[in-house]
Amino acid sequence: MPPVPDAPKPAGFMADMTPAFFRKLFSALGIGLIGGAIAHSIDMPLAWMMGPMLATFIASLLRVKMGIPMRVRSVILGVIGIFLGASFTPETLDQASRWPLSMIAVLIYVPVITLIVTWFYTKIAKLDPATALFSATPGGLTPMVVLGAAAGGNEQEIALTQGLRVLLLVMSAPLIALLVTGVVATGHGDDAALSMDLTGGAITVALALVTVWLFRRIGVPAAEMTGAMMASMVLHVSGLVEGNLPGWLLAGSLWILGSAIGSRFAGIKLAFLIRLGGYAVLATAVVLAFTGLVSWGVSQALDLDFIAVLLAFAPGGVAEMSLIALALNVEPSFVAFHHIIRIFEIVLLAPIMAKWMQKRQMRNGA
Predict the structure, then answer these.
(1) Cα separation of 303 and 300, whole Å?
(2) Rounded CA separation 212/230 (Å)
(3) How many CB atoms within 10 Å of residue 71?
(4) How far apart are CA 59 and CA 44, in angstroms?
(5) CATH code of the domain containing 78
(6) d(Cα 144, Cα 135) in Å, to the nearest integer?
(7) How far is CA 73 from the centre of its chain?
(8) Domains of the chain: total
(9) What angle do CA 139, 144, 149 make, to 5 degrees?
(10) Is residue 58's pLDDT more than 80?
(11) Is 204 domain-assigned?
């Protein structure tokens, strides 16, 4: 029996590197590369993430066997973290005086949107309570599936609804920004700043590796990205390092990340997708409508940029929403920090919800 992915076995990584592993990996990256090239040629917003994501999603529905392991995605998240950390400047600290109030708004927003979408999945989609709750909670796919299954939920349904939420929100956000502002998310942030020298790059990578290791040890969520971002942020705010990694490295990271998102649907049955996918689309529309309303109110009350607040509140994934902000040059540091606050809250609340659902299920079964 093959080892469980990501199990703490000494030879686990090497044992996973079979011909089948490489076929799935290269299939995902190859299809993603084609999608990215096509998207780039037609000037699609955030082409090197959107193109691979759509191409691998379509290939997944056609039952192509492919996949990008979490270990590869973790490295990419570290690279993205360095990019995001470089968006912090000494001026960012001055602007951050308005952030605490918007962060409090995020902490209130998360349970409210979770309750709204849980009601939708329970009453409209007719999912069982545990499946509905963990499908609605705007957290990471893997922890929601694991905790939801422990609470008696349906793993496949939770994985599908969570995966579609990220896919649809990542697709929608650049288009909404285009409609509202007329700006196409095709950039990589401030191109003039992409000039980190070799010494600065080596210092940043070294500190990022140490910080990621430390964050893993103390259980910080999304340690690869948050650790690398924190290291890069400290170096840039202090002025020890200037500039950022080269633009081609971000484009490559977008390609791999987009391919990984679409590949999550590999092997899914079309009938299953159609049955539950429609409800997931409607639920995402509810999330977008509510998020848009809340974001407009927060931006007006605190005199913040509406698109930045929208990306900060839209639960489409820390890396994905922050990258869209980076491409639009709308305070990626603001967006990233608010998503980290959201993830922290969910990490704290999700186990409590799982235990509550388990006790509820035991009482009902008694």
Answers:
(1) 5
(2) 9
(3) 13
(4) 19
(5) 1.20.1530
(6) 7
(7) 11
(8) 1
(9) 165
(10) yes
(11) yes
Mean pLDDT across 346-361 = 75
pLDDT at 187: 55
pLDDT at residue 168 is higher than 80: yes
15 CB-side CA count, 13 A: 12
- Contacting residues for 329 by C-beta, under 8 A, at least 6 apart: 187, 189, 190
**Cα–chain-centroid distance for residue 349?**
19
Q: 354 burial class (0-12, 13-18, 19+ CB within 10 angstroms)?
A: buried
Does the structure show a pLDDT above 50 at 3?
A: no
Alpha helices in 66-154 (DSSP H): 70-85, 90-95, 99-119, 129-136, 141-150
Cα 345 from Cα 352, distance rounded (Å):
11
DSSP 8-state secondary structure symbol assigned to residue 317: -
Q: What is the rounded distance in angstroms from the CA atom of residue 121 to the CA atom of residue 279?
A: 8
- Cα–Cα dist 327/132, whole Å: 33
Domain holding 147, by residue range, is: 15-365
Token digits of residue 51: 């193109």
* Domain contains 24: yes
